[in-house]
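Forum > Structural Biology > Help requests

Title: Can anyone predict the 3D structure of Putative sodium-coupled neutral amino acid transporter 11?

Hi all, first post here. I have the sequence for Putative sodium-coupled neutral amino acid transporter 11 but no way to get a structure on my laptop. I'd be grateful if someone could post the structure tokens.
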Amino acid sequence: MMGGKEISERNYVLESRNQYQQFSEDRGSSIDSRENAFDDMSELIVNEEDDKKSSMHYASFNFINSIIGSGVIGIPYALHQAGFGFGVLLLVLVAYITDYSLILMIKAGHISGRFSYQGIMEAAFGRAGYILLGILQFVYPFIAMVSYNVVVGDTVTKVIIRLTDIEPDNIFAKREIIVLIATIFITVPLSLYRDIAKLAKISFFSLVCIGFILLSILLRIRTISKIVPDHPDSWRFFNSDIIPAVGIMAFAFMCHHNTFLIYSSIADTSQKKWETVTHASILTSLIVSCIFGIAGYATFKAYCQGDLLENYCWDDDLMNASRILFSIQILLTYPIECFVTRGVIENSIISKDPNVPMSERTHYAITLSIVFTTYFISMATDCLGVVLELNGVLAAVPLAFVLPAFCYLRLEEGRIFDRNKLPALGVAFFGLSVTTLGVIFLFMDIDQINQCSHGVVMDYCSLRYLNVTQNSTEI
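Reply #1:
Sure, ran it for you. Structure tokens for Putative sodium-coupled neutral amino acid transporter 11 below:
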């Protein structure tokens, strides 16, 4: 999103399930352990010091950490899709709607007395709402895992070619082989863990990686932008691919699965405190996303790809370091997404009691099926932008905009067109429009699914090499 949210990037220190359930009971909720069985954060709860509640500042930090992740790497491409000027405005709009939808979720929680995403969906729409949410919470991390494989295939192959000086057609420079090796030796062993606490410190490491990548991008603006040729579509204010751009941006800001758990971590929490935390977190995330997007676009302009790191030259060792860090980050995030996806299958399809451990045989079978299915799907395309768009319009937009707004509209007293409900109605309409049009456009452009430049040295990189050679000759 990259998911994800490059979820990512959405990972926290473990706390026991009982503490979260106690929070629900204190507010008169009817939540049980089954209700939260496939919430990816029900096992990854913010915790400052063991049993202590956190301050608003600490909650904001963790919320920011859950938002900023692998999805930001696609923001420059989204700005290209929508047009630079309009894209920036669209990014601000998506951030604003995300902020409002997060506030709506907590309002719905107070109205219903159910302080979980599953709880408010079930309170508003019964068992059907619970099942629908389960499907979307399966689709989101599943496609995120596919995107992670695509990124590994994009980045690691280039680094290996650079470090070993092997030919691009060598078997160990093939993305299919590299992703398969990473799957067998890294993602499978980590995904087979039952206790996700072993991966709890990924959250901080994720921020370190993103910070290093951002610094690298800023350092390369001046040198790389000089060799990138002019393009007639560069710096255009408006382009027509608005819907795919919204999908990518929604994926980058996706954090709604964490909402109630971060809310529950705040000491003496209230709606007013939550709004303060949300405003601060979304604003900070928007600033970081804008820096990423503008810096990346200023460097490559109309040549921006879905994976920004694809734009950099293969012999750029600073960016190769960024590629390695980014790959490590998502490889460590992958098993957390697998944990969520497996939880949906166990508790919604198999209908297992979450308090009863699943047999080793079933656990292994489900995990391996998920991991290798995502592997084979990821081999169908090497274009990260398409995968981010798909996850954005199919899962992120409904989870972030449509369902929170519908829950509030259904639970709040009064007619649907009452003045206090109009903003929520607007959010729901916006989300439904993006999802519907996004699916239509993806099918219309299905023939362009593999039109990206993976595995090809960009022309301007060859130009840079020639310039360096000429300068050396002159000296």
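The chain has 15 helices and no strands. The radius of gyration is 22 Å.
Shout if anything looks off.
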